[in-house]
Amino acid sequence: MPPRRPVGGLGLTLDDAARATAILLAGLSGALALGVGLTGDRVSALVARTERVVGPVFLAALLLLTLIALIAVVRLWRDPGDRSWHIVGLQASAGIATLALTFTLLGIGLGIASLSTAALGPETAGRLVGALTRRFAMAFATSIVGLPLAALLRAVLLVLAAREPDRAVPDGEAPGPGEAT
CA dist 164 to 103, 107, 109, 159, 167, Å? Predict the structure, then answer.
């Protein structure tokens, strides 16, 4: 195996980034498969609806913060004593929770604002309710996705960091069947 060369000040290697990206892509594939199984929609329709409901900014920020947290997971898998990456991962997880709550409040605020700027009457009620529910869908979808994801990543990071340093997995090796790490 070629030697690992750090890319940044925290000792990030391309191998770490590649492993984290593979985990992220596997998770996205699993989420899409679950979504297709539950809704019966095609993947393209599911992706389009997701982007329409939560928005591209939320998706991009969520993916970036998740990738950072997963890089920290990969680093802590190899070296449980890597305090710097433990902190980076916890901050990325907190960022995901903050992002989810921010977009929840944004969706609620935009929904309420749509009520305040339009005349309310029998002929406009249907349109206003439609606009309100679209905004509330964004509000709740961001929390439903972001908060559990943040909690899961935080739990994994805490468990990995709590392992004994001598129980770390050497580079390039996966634990064998029945081996605890």
Answer: 38, 43, 46, 10, 5
What pairs with residue 13 in β-bridges? Answer: 6
How far is Cα 54 from Cα 73, in angstroms, rounded to an integer? 26
Mean pLDDT for all residues in the chain: 86
Coil vs helix vs strand at 177: coil
Task: Please answer whether residues 50 and 142 qualify as being in contact, where contact means their C-beta atoms are separated by less than 8 angstroms.
Answer: no
CB-based burial label for 75 (10 Å; 0-12, 13-18, 19+):
buried
| pTM, 2 dp | 0.80
Question: How many helices and strands in the chain, by DSSP H and E?
Answer: 5, 0
Q: What is the pLDDT of residues 3-41, one digit of tens each?
A: 565 655 677 889 999 999 999 999 999 999 999 999 999
Residues 6+ apart with CB under 8 A from 106: 138, 139
pLDDT value at position 3? 53
Assess contact for 110 and 135: CB atoms under 8 A: yes
Tokens of 7: 């890319």
Q: 65 with 73: CB under 8 angstroms? A: no
**pLDDT tens-place string over residues 77-95:** 988 989 999 999 999 999 9
Residues in the chain: 181
